[in-house]
């Protein structure tokens, strides 16, 4: 498969995303009577979070990942964890160097750490198998393995996205809203300045200041402050005794809240039905007695990507007008996510293969490296709208990173195919 054919394959799913997002752009404009309004986008986003996304995760796990595959592909979740860890470090470095608005700090880290392991691998990776004389074996067998790897990547990626990235976006929202509340409460104290100005005017008019009364007033004020400090210190000492238990309970509460989110529950159930054979045979396969349940869940899951993409287009109409994303931030995210992270990931996979931690299948190694090269996940848009932070800004990030990924994915596909062929 030549460079131009790979460019066509790599750009096809990206162009699909951009074309479907144009539908959302049109529906959010006055030409369509603002059908996709801000309130409707928030409601639809909640439906995606509660119904569509969990269905897609469960269907992908239960159908594509068995217990034997979970054991033999044990390095894949480790590798995905590395993509989040290394990408998060790169995003943190960008935040420290550029010092952007607090509103977009979490978006930068999430964009660098969280790749689109959903529709892009399912389209791109099996298409590589069509290459004649390729390094990945016979096209039919290669395609079956590629689909299994891709769906496993989708399911495992969802675990990290709806735990790590979900918590990251939640914390960003809480910090930003606390910052906004603090800014609102900042009322300038003009009384002191007014008193000083009044005294100066009185001095200029010939009045004298009663220094003794002023000293007495300051002594009285100091005594009150000392009493207040003593009271505060006693309160702090009591609170310090309770702080440890309070923090432990708060941490446990956060963990339980994350575990009870619909995508996390769907991940657990998908693991259960995919790993336990008799449960798997209940809903998977032509002879399964409860096959209709799996087909219904699959039908719901199929609506995830179109809904997210249409919402992306609707958010983009506001993002292009009111976004606070600077060009330097976009350039840094593109370089870190699409070029630096895959280069580091290639080294990680090569070291793992050298120590015998990976299966001998070169396609498996190809998939592991491509997990580092994917553009940001569209689920970040769902979280941004869910927590009402940086929705417009992330739509702009997604637009530019997906445009750049048509070139970067092609470059990495050509390089990796040649590398494994040699």
TrEMBL record:
It holds the Pfam family Mem_trans. GO terms for cellular component: endoplasmic reticulum membrane. The chain crosses the membrane at residues 12-32, 44-62, 74-95, 107-128, 148-166, 252-273, 328-349, 356-374, 394-416. The keyword Endoplasmic reticulum applies. Signal peptide: none annotated. Keywords: Auxin signaling pathway, Endoplasmic reticulum, Membrane, Transmembrane, Transmembrane helix, Transport. Its main location: endoplasmic reticulum. GO terms for biological process: auxin-activated signaling pathway. InterPro entries: Mem_transp_PIN-like (IPR004776), PILS1/3/4/5/7 (IPR045033). It is found in: Endoplasmic reticulum membrane. Belongs to the auxin efflux carrier (TC 2.A.69.2) family. Involved in cellular auxin homeostasis by regulating auxin metabolism. Regulates intracellular auxin accumulation at the endoplasmic reticulum and thus auxin availability for nuclear auxin signaling. This is Uncharacterized protein. It comes from Flemingia macrophylla.
């Amino acid at each position: 498969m030549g460079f131009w054919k790979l460019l066509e394959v790599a750009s096809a799913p990206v162009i699909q995303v951009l074309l479907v997002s144009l539908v959302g752009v049109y529906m959010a404009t006055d030409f369509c009577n603002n059908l996709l309004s801000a309130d409707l986008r928030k409601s639809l986003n909640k439906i995606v979070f509660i119904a569509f996304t969990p269905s897609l995760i469960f269907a992908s796990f239960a159908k594509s990942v068995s217990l034997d595959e979970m054991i033999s592909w044990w390095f894949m979740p480790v590798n995905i964890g590395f993509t989040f860890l290394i990408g998060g470090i790169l995003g943190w470095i960008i935040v420290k160097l550029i010092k952007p608005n607090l509103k977009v700090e979490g978006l930068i880290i999430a964009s660098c750490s969280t790749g689109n392991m959903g529709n892009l691998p399912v389209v791109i990776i099996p298409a590589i198998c069509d290459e004649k004389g390729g390094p990945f074996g016979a096209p039919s067998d290669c395609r079956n393995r590629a689909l299994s790897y891709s769906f496993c990547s989708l399911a495992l990626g969802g675990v990290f996205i709806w735990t790590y990235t979900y918590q990251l976006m939640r914390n960003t929202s809480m910090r930003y809203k606390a910052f906004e509340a603090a800014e609102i409460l900042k009322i300038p104290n003009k009384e002191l300045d007014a008193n000083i100005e009044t005294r100066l005017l009185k001095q200029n008019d010939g009045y004298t200041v009663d220094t003794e009364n002023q000293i007495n007033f300051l002594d009285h004020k100091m005594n009150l402050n000392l009493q207040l400090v003593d009271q505060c210190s006693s309160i702090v000492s009591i609170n310090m005794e309770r702080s440890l238990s309070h923090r432990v309970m708060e941490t446990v509460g956060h963990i339980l809240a994350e575990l009870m989110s619909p995508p996390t529950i769907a991940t657990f159930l998908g693991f259960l039905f995919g790993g336990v054979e008799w449960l798997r045979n209940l809903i998977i396969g032509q002879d399964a007695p409860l096959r209709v349940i799996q087909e219904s869940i699959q039908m719901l899951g199929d609506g995830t990507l179109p809904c997210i993409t249409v919402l992306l287009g609707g958010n983009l109409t506001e993002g292009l007008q009111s976004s606070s994303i600077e060009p330097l931030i976009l350039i840094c995210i593109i370089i870190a996510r699409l070029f630096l992270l895959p280069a580091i990931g290639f080294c990680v996979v090569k070291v793992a293969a050298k120590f015998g931690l990976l299966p001998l299948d070169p396609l498996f190694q190809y998939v592991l490296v491509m997990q580092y090269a994917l553009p940001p996940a569209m689920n970040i848009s769902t979280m941004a709208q869910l927590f009402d932070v940086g929705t417009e800004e992330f739509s702009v990030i997604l637009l530019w990173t997906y445009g750049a990924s048509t070139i970067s994915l092609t470059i990495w596909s050509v390089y990796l195919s040649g590398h494994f062929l040699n």
